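Subject: Re: docking follow-up (flavin mononucleotide)

Dear J.,

Thanks for your patience while I sorted out the input files. As discussed at Tuesday's group meeting, I've set up the holo structure prediction with flavin mononucleotide included as the bound ligand rather than trying to dock it afterwards. The sequence and the ligand SMILES I used are pasted below, so you can double-check that they match what you have on your end before we go further.
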Amino acid sequence: MGSGNSTNFWICGTSSEKENKRNGGFTTGGKINLTDPEKTGGAPIWGVIDKRRSIRSFSSDKSLDLKKLSQLLWAAYGLTESSLGRGEQKKGGKFRAAPSAYGKYTIGVFVFVGKKRVRDGENCIKNGVYYYCPNDHSLTLVNKKSVEDILLCFPNEKHFVKDANIIVLLASDTEKINWLSDAEKELAEDKGHVYAYMDSGYISMNVCLAATALDLATVPIAKLIKERGNSLLKIDEAQKSNLESSEICGSKFELVIVLPVGFKDGVT
Ligand SMILES: Cc1cc2nc3c(=O)[nH]c(=O)nc-3n(C[C@H](O)[C@H](O)[C@H](O)COP(=O)(O)O)c2cc1C
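The structure tokens for the complex came back this morning:
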């Protein structure tokens, strides 16, 4: 995993205040404050596990409600109950929906929104790639890639990925995966990048289960043209100021796995 393939990127800040008023899903500064997730009720977990299947056929004409996208992203990597934790997270209380090796959270969750494929009431969410910020449960637009740009990354799956409403993109932060101290490196055999792949697996499973619980369809796809995939995470010049106005830091991301999500259509 050479850093030559990785993409320079700015992460959005840790601001917890939802100062931008929601306005049909859009806020100033290219930011969307997502709706608060439901933390009780929903589909029973045993039935969801039993029902989950990789689905490779999506309906091309239904739009996804922003509320469902919000729930899915929270289930993937959102902040969760912190009182049961230990160590450094307990101080900051920043645990997430998916476990993470050493609690380092080295994965960035991005989401591609297809044109007119996600709605908030009467409004369509602008298409493009967004960064999901768990700290304030928001999305920030990073570029305006089209579905055609996205499809260039898939050697074999174009025929169904094109109909997905959204595509969740899980990427490892190439700086963060080198977080181990020398002592830890010895114990862990310096496998920060392996842990990043493992972390992605947990997040990926959360996406699969949440999609099933929300009556949506998905499939994890690891077979990607890496360099093209990394270019999907590149921040547009036009969006830089949006991100710079919040608390941000520089990061380099490498795509690990993606999950197109949509409405099930026909055979799998
Ligand atoms: C790490 C991983 C990578 C995968 N990559 C692909 C892929 O590139 N293309 C694809 O169509 N399915 C992919 N799959 C889905 C598997 O083919 C699928 O999980 C498997 O056939 C079992 O079916 P099930 O998910 O319905 O239980 C991947 C699954 C995992 C866990």
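A couple of observations from a first look. The pocket of flavin mononucleotide is lined by residues 53-54, 56, 157, 219-223 (CB under 6 Å). The chain has one domain: 3-15+24-262.

Let me know if you'd like me to rerun anything.

Best regards,
T.
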